[in-house]
Structures are given as C-alpha cells and as structure tokens.
Amino acid sequence: MDMIQPDARQLPRKKARRSTLAKDRYGYLFIAPFFVVFLIFGLYPIISTFQLSLQKWDGLMPAFSIGLKNYVRILSDQVFYLSLWNTVRIWLGNAIPQFGVALLLVAVFTFSRVRGKNFYRAVFYLPNLITATSVGLLFNLLLDGDSSPINQLLTALNVSGAPISFFQSKALTSGLVSFVQWWMWFGYTTVIILAGTTTVDKSMYEAAMVDGASKSQTFWRITLPLIKPTLVYLAITSFIGGMQLFDVPLTLTNNLGDPGKAVLTVSMYLYNQGFKNFNYGYSATISCVLFLLIAGMSGFAYKAMRSKDGMYKL
Amino acid sequence: MKHHSFRLSALSIRLMLIFLALLCAVPFLVVFINSSHSSLDIIQKFNLLPGDSIADNYKTMQSLVDIWRGFFNSIVISVPYTLLTGYFGAMIAYGFAKFNFRSKNALYAIVLASMMIPSQLSIIGFYRLCLNLHMTNSYLPFIIPGIANATTVFFLRGIIEQSISDSMIEAPRIEGCSEFGIFNRIVLPCIMPGVATMCIFNFVASWNAYMGPLIILQRKELYTMPVMISMIKGLYVTNYGAMYLAIAISVIPIMIVFAFFSRYIIDGLTTGSEK
Question: pTM of the prediction?
Fold first, then answer.
C-alpha cells in the first residue's frame, strides 16, 4: 500500500501539470502585444533619444555624430542650470504646501466627524482632472492685467498695491506657477493619503486612546509611521512629475517662461531647443541629463527610505 | 514642540474646508459666468451673475478657431486609445495573472519599470520615430501606445488574481473553449468594473495630453483641444468672453464625466493606491 499510494497520486498530477504547461504557452501570446508596442513606442524612443544626444541633428539633414560635445556644452550652459533651479524651486514651492495641507486634511477627516467628507474629497480632487493647458490659461485670464477679475477684487477690497502686475515680477510669477500646481494636486494627494490611512487598523487608534494618547500624539506616532510607504510613493511620483513640468508655466505665462525666464522649466527649455531652435541633438542631451537626475534622485530616496526601515515595498 | 495639537474648533475646521472648496470651485464659476459676458463687461467689473453675450462670444470664438474641430479631434484620439487600454490591458494582465511561463517575473519587472519611466523625456526620440514611420500629422502615435499601458496592466492583474478563480478558467477549458474565448467570454465580463475604472482615468489622461500632440501634429486642422487652448491667447488677444467660453467648452466634458462618476473615480484611485 505504502509503495503504491505515492505512485497513484503522482500519475494524475503529472498529467495535469503537462496539460497546464501546454496552455501556459498561451501566456506569451496574451502578453506579447505589450512588448511589441513597448519596444516600438516606449523603448525605441528612449534609445533613439540617447543616440541623438551624441549627435547633431536639425531635423532636415542627416544626423551626424559629434561625440560628447553636447554634454560638454550642457555643463557650462547657464540657461540649463537656471531652468533646473526653476523646476526644482517650483516643485518645492508646491510639494511642501501640498503635503502639508493634505496631511492636515487627513488629520481632520480621521479624527473629527466632518459631514460631507465625500463631497469635499470630490471637490478637492476636481482640479486634478482638468486639462493643464486650460488651467494655465484660466489663471492667466484671472490674474493678468490691471482689469483682471482678481485685480478688480483686490481693488474693491482696497488691498494696498492693487492692481498688481503679477506677471512682471519674477518671484510672483514663480510663486503663482507653484500655486497653480498646488491647486491642481493637493486634492489628489489628500485622496491617496486618505486611502493609505484606511488600511490602518482601527483598533490601534482605540488602543492608543485607551492608553491616554492625545489625538495629535496618535496622528504623529501611529498614523504617520504607518502611512509612510504611501508618502514615499507620493513624494517620488510627485518629484518625477514635477521635474517634467511643462503645460502650466507655458500657458500661464507667454509661452516663454518670462519675465526673465523665471519659470522656464527644463522641459520647456528642451522643447525650445528642439522644436524652436531645431537643435534636436542638444535637446536630447537635456532629456538624458534630466533623466539621469530623476533616476538618481528617485533611486536614492527609495533606497534611503528602504534601508531605514527595511520593510517597505512599493 | 512637534506635538502642538490640532485641537482646532469644529468651526475653524468647517471654515477651512469651505475655504478650500471655494478655492477649487470659484475659478470654474468665474469661467462659466464670464463666458456669457461681453469682453467689455469682463474688464469693467467682477461679474457675479451670468450675462447675455454668450451667442456673441460664440460667434467671435468660432470666427477665429473652430473649437468643435479640436473637440472632435480629441475624441477621435481619446476614444480608441481608451478602448485599447481597456481591452489589451485586461488581456495582458490576464496573461500575467493566470499563466506560468518562463521568465514571467523578469518580463513583469519590465512592465513595472516602464511605469516609472518619465515618458516626456524621450519625446525627441518619439518625434524621430514618427518621422521615420511617416506618422507626423497622424493620430496613430497617440492611439497605438494604448496597447502598452503599464498602469492598467498592473491594476487589472491585481483584480484578476483576486476575483477570477482557477476553476473558472479550468471548467470552460475542459469543455473545449479556446484560450481567447475564455478571456473574451469569461474573464473580461467578470472584471468589467475594474476595466471601466481604468478606462475613465485613461480617457482623462489622453484627453489632457499636450506635449505629444503639440510636437507631432503640424497641420492646424488636426490640433487637439489642449493644443488649441494653448494657442488661443495669441489669437483672441482681448476677446476675453470668447476665451472664457473656449475654456468652458474644454472643461465641460471632464466635468460631466466627473459629475456622474466621481464616486467611481475616487474609489478607483483609492483601490489602485492600496495595492
């Protein structure tokens, strides 16, 4: 008996395994479309961009190799450094208040009984869905000029200095781009963090309350550490998106990032170099350098967070 | 210091929420209200009520740019793109969820990695590809990539693993149903709610895409809505009423989608991020 039983069990199992193995080859068929399209429209453009970063190409004549000349040029390109600083500054100017307000809202929604939570969530999230070019133009119309709606409001309220020429000042223009970005994204950040808090076990709050922890202690000591993976994910994706900022500063200003290139972002600069000056090679170099910066920074942030806690997977 | 409390009174919480809600809503209200006022009205006073110049604004708007053309063009791109993301996203997710083949994990890692690639940074290579394929002034470069939408694959793989049991696939297989038949007739209908959620997001993303169409489409009659909107400031100059009306028209489809599906959209956002 003991000798037969394992054999008897093995036989049908082997057969079943063979038949699923035969079907398993269909898996390749199902996933093939992804890889075909990704190779052509995803990977090829990346390789081609890298290749072009070593070439000179005006879009008409054939491209020819110029070695590392583009990279040497970018190292001493003041406009590139300016655009990089603009991009980082605009991102910091919206990411910090974005996370601040989102965390405040999360604390409010978690610890106080607010009526209409779903309504607020929906209203805060709405700006995120709207076309960024429409948002940029909308705020341009609201702000630009002495008789813009905002200036009429400020004048009516007797604000000193009104009407304000918003787009004459570098600092104001940069701040406004950050504001519009904040306006578009704080609701999204709130919704995602709120989703992260729903995974926190309610009994942990009760245990903390029983032990006499205040609401703020509970928030800082329990909620925040538990939603850290969500925060890291949001910070990294926000950084990747922020570094590619293009639509809003373009349409909020005069398409050039003026005054004085105050809101010229890296993406705008690479667009101008490519599609206005027809330096496609140099434009590709800007892409590659920005790509390396983004990959390096995100990898660094991810590693730092991971090694510190050793338990987060994104 | 760190622990100073949030003991905000109920009133101040309420005020803050209302203030933020107004901040989100008022810009849209101003757009809708001003789109019915003459440009002179708009620069002379802050309008609180709708006006009566919407027909004139419409005439001015259409005399300079055909907004409906942009609207139509955007739909011609966004609808097929969205359908491709839904159908192929489900199919690819099914391949990863329910089949065991060699180097599956390595291949899936490529899918995940492609999610993190900042696509805007390979735009020059994308442009060159489109030149080589003679696809400038074509919508195909914006539609076909819908087949390889990594986020959709990632999201739907989770749903398939949760909601489709192996026996649901084995039974029709024994009955002699083809593998694609199983996917089309059993798997796809079962995960339709998840597919629909992803489709809403993909539609919005495609509708809002700007840099790609700006670069690839050179003929004016092919411009999509966002490209048109970004150009009207230079065209309409001081025709403010017409500009507000154009923005309103560009915003309305998304508003309608959101009004009907907001619960759905936010739930989708929420489950997507819990994974």
Answer: 0.85
